[in-house]
Amino acid sequence: MVLSNSRADLNREIALEQAHVDRVYDNLNVATASAKSLAESGREIYVSDRTSWTREEDSTALFERDAFAYQAARRLAILDAEHEGLVFGRIDLADDDARYIGRIGVRDRDYEPLVIDWRAPAAEPFYRATPTAPMGAIRRRVLRCRDDKVIGLEDDLLDSTRATNLPIIGEGALMASLTRARGRTMRDIVATIQAEQDEAIRAPYQGVTIIAGGPGTGKTVVALHRAAYLLYTNRARLERGGVLVVGPTNVFMNYIERVLPSLGEESVTLKAIGSVASDTLGMSSERMDNAEAATVKGSLAMVKLLGALVRTPLNDHPEALRVRVTVKGEVLTLDADALARIRDQVLSQTKLNRGHDLAFNLVVSALKAKLPEDVEISPVELDEQVREHPSLTRFMASWWPALSATRVLARLSDPRLTHRLATQFTPQQRESLSGSYAWLRGSESDADTGRGWSIADIALLDELVHILGPVPDEKDRELDLFAEGEVAEVLTTADLLRLERSKDPAEDPQSTYAHILVDEGQDVTPMQWRMLRRRGPQSSWTIVGDPAQSSYPFQDQTTSALDELIGRAKRRTFTLSTNYRSPSEVFDLAARVITKVYPDAELPRAVRSTGIEPLLTGTDSAGLPGALRKILLDLAGTVNGTIGIITPPSRLRDIQLLVLGDERLREFEDRLIVVTALQAKGLEYDGVVVVSPDEIVAEAPGGARVLYVALTRATQRLVTLDVETSQWRGLLD
Ligand SMILES: Nc1ncnc2c1ncn2[C@@H]1O[C@H](COP(=O)(O)OP(=O)(O)OP(=O)(O)O)[C@@H](O)[C@H]1O
């Protein structure tokens, strides 16, 4: 073994590796050319066959050729996407067996592997081998390439007990990768996945896999590599059934969106939590409610309130809650209690928007039963007279209209109704709930435009679509009515069951997926878990989260919603223990804060140290612009890469204007990002300024846990800037 940092050794090794990489690209070019010609010939055959495709066997052949051409085109797209940095690793095993690891597998003409796909079992030692358990490996080498040129390499010695001539170059790939400045989007870590991360990535597909661990431990990036791994190992099932990745915000989705394509996977749906229900609602939201309203709307008690809203007729004027028809001079009446019983009976059998005809038939039956026995009329005539009575038609239109989810939820803007129905909430909670819909007061039509609904409302609207069923098409309703005209005079239980059974399950409007990956799972409220569960009734799950960073205050509710989701499925938990993001100086400060407010927090070990302590500063309100400007100019001069300015929501706008309006700061505008602590979830910046920690604590639903999120975003340097008060520093004692 030769440990070396000399330039000459490095250049010699680079040249050796380049020779192999060149062979790989030569073979790749051959593969690309053959995939191209396959795709071409598939298309040609398809075009020429169209004139004579009458024979049955021809169309079968056509289908096969289509599938073939499709596969070829797909392979081409992958080859194209994976061209850059295709080979990134090499593992040297005993008896001179060297394996190259890459983004996809490439073989030579004799079908000998030149590169092994990183997800294949043969690649495992590259990730799992450690000096304490070398798995037969001696050296791990990470190649750094630009396009198809090797520009650097880093080695790890895995087994120092074996005699070997292999040179060991550099100081380890992980450190080299971690000290590089971060960009605006997340990078894949395929070349430097660590052993404990690899275990989570390759865990079996079935059941629920939970990836836990403190900030910066790689939970997100590991989960994304897991998605790519699962697609590789369960391709047919997952491409057919679909994979959904859910994150907290659109900013976060933009941040991670390149990782899967860089691993060769394009067939994954990415959605922020506010967009998950766009399939049923046709809209999404990015707007956050204030802390109290968001908490109320996320809680499980909303299920009961939404049920009560649906059961309460739109028009509850006493006159509207009575139906009266006259037959042969006899007045037949149903009072509010009888109607409420019918309403409950129908809603226990079916959804409101599917229940109109059942409700109508039950009302007709109940009215007919009111006719004194001595009145002479044939059953058929009685039925006709009741059914076609104009006042019954009018009554049904007001008592059982088809309802959209938005129209039902908009009713909470009425403080009196909210006060009456939301008995499970305190008066103050009811007020903030109803107040959050003040934008709907006086203008019902706003409900349908979708502009004002918040992220928390999206889960409530989705729940309502589930309770109500889709609004029926007018045409369908006419057909239904016609069919129900034949219904027997008295409805039997069997009839009711038949109606229920005849409901087409395919009518459920939401999309479903075979695997759902939820990031920042600690912030998913119970109502949002219900929304997600509807997208994966049969799916397997990967759930990523850290309760210590939660912005939702009722952890026990979230835990029970999650337990309900998992049910009896197999659950396995991986807890990642190393912080790859923040230097130990930065993380130590954050750890002191979180252990005071959340003693159970998982505290990872920071893998790096910079020797630079966080800077704690303060100012008064008037001095804020000047103080912030100075901090930003200093940071811009000392760190490469991005600078995050994390502010309380109430200061976001002013600070954005301040940054944009300052000539000196505008010079490096593309490196400055102003966000709230909640928006910074899951993201990272090389330098971070946390503005007014006290206000961040006061304005966020998770209080100090959200400050912990802000304090753990820096990869290099952290500065805090108190404005007027600095109570949070009490947590550091
Ligand atoms: N094995 C690795 N090699 C190189 N970089 C890594 C590795 N693991 C994690 N990282 C880097 O560490 C940083 C943190 O990763 P990630 O955002 O996935 O952490 P997280 O646990 O999801 O954090 P948070 O809980 O704060 O959202 C990222 O820049 C990621 O690329």
Automatic annotation (TrEMBL):
<dbReference type="GO" id="GO:0016787">
    <property type="term" value="F:hydrolase activity"/>
</dbReference>
<dbReference type="InterPro" id="IPR027417">
    <property type="entry name" value="P-loop_NTPase"/>
</dbReference>
<dbReference type="GO" id="GO:0003677">
    <property type="term" value="F:DNA binding"/>
</dbReference>
<dbReference type="InterPro" id="IPR014016">
    <property type="entry name" value="UvrD-like_ATP-bd"/>
</dbReference>
<dbReference type="GO" id="GO:0000725">
    <property type="term" value="P:recombinational repair"/>
</dbReference>
<keyword id="KW-0067">ATP-binding</keyword>
<dbReference type="Pfam" id="PF13538">
    <property type="entry name" value="UvrD_C_2"/>
</dbReference>
<protein>
    <submittedName>
        <fullName>DNA helicase IV</fullName>
    </submittedName>
</protein>
<feature type="binding site">
    <location>
        <begin position="213"/>
        <end position="220"/>
    </location>
    <ligand>
        <name>ATP</name>
    </ligand>
</feature>
<keyword id="KW-0378">Hydrolase</keyword>
<feature type="domain" description="UvrD-like helicase ATP-binding">
    <location>
        <begin position="192"/>
        <end position="583"/>
    </location>
</feature>
<dbReference type="InterPro" id="IPR000212">
    <property type="entry name" value="DNA_helicase_UvrD/REP"/>
</dbReference>
<dbReference type="GO" id="GO:0043138">
    <property type="term" value="F:3'-5' DNA helicase activity"/>
</dbReference>
<keyword id="KW-0347">Helicase</keyword>
<dbReference type="InterPro" id="IPR027785">
    <property type="entry name" value="UvrD-like_helicase_C"/>
</dbReference>
<dbReference type="GO" id="GO:0005524">
    <property type="term" value="F:ATP binding"/>
</dbReference>
<keyword id="KW-0547">Nucleotide-binding</keyword>
<dbReference type="Pfam" id="PF13245">
    <property type="entry name" value="AAA_19"/>
</dbReference>
